[in-house]
Amino acid sequence: MIVQLRRVLALAGAGLLTLVSACESQKPKYEGPYAAEVAQAVPMIEKAVGLKFKTPPKIETRSKEQVREFVTKQFTDSLAKHDIAGQEAAYKRLGMIPDTLKLQPFLTSLLEEQIVGYYDPHTKVLYVVDGSPKDMAQLTITHELVHALQDQYISLDSVQKIRDDNDRLSAAQSVFEGQAVYEQISIMLGGSNIAINLPGGWDRIREMIRENQSSMPIFAAAPKVIQETLIFPYLSGAEFYR
């Protein structure tokens, strides 16, 4: 898969899970939006991952319009346009997408549907979309804070800038997303891996993630190759990390 597309699809992690948090609330010690959610998640993430935040994570809100601008911007530089045009041509030649499908606007709409929040390694800020349901915002914060912690030890920005080596980029993205998904699930289960490790437990969680994705209209209408490209780093990455 193309470098630029994989980089943008990495932003969609918050839309992958709808499990209910069993974590106990803690006294907030952070300021700004979602201070209570951040204060609750940080110590659990540090315990699960085994690393401490070097600096407090930053979190801000973004309007849906700002998210659309951000997503659109990822496709507008000359290299991105060239990559997407080539990928679209290859998909059509192989019969993987309809001849009438325009990949760039479709991906923009798909990502808008998926994104509840994202961590930007360039600004070092976790962004949550205004008006997001509370449960989804909590899941987003937990997942993306894992990325914020990863970024304090390994530069995620440098990984996202990998060029001309899609296999390397895909492997790195799957490791980062896989850890975030797996630790998020563990935290949602109260810090226990019992349900994950029970016979059939992990398979059921994978099914739940796929079912949730399929409930989203644009994702459900997407060609199979786009669906699998979107979901691969999360499911297969978590399987590897497990």
What are the key terms here?
single chain, three-stranded mixed beta sheet, 242 residues, globular, 6% strand, 12 helices, mainly alpha, 61% helix
Brief characterization of the structure:
The protein has helices at 3-9, 35-49, 64-74, 78-93, 103-114, 134-151, 156-160, 166-188, 194-197, 201-214, 217-221, 224-241; strands at residues 58-62, 117-120, 125-129. The chain has 242 residues and is mainly α.
What does this structure look like?
By secondary structure, the chain is mainly α. 61% of the residues lie in helices and 6% in strands. It has 12 helices and 3 strands. Strands 1-3-2 form a 3-stranded mixed beta sheet. It is globular and about 50 Å long. The N terminus is likely disordered.
Task: Itemize the secondary structure elements and their pairings.
Elements: H1 3-9, H2 35-49, E1 58-62, H3 64-74, H4 78-93, H5 103-114, E2 117-120, E3 125-129, H6 134-151, H7 156-160, H8 166-188, H9 194-197, H10 201-214, H11 217-221, H12 224-241
Parallel strand pairs: 1-3
Antiparallel strand pairs: 2-3
Helix pairs in contact: 2-6, 2-8, 3-5, 6-8, 8-12
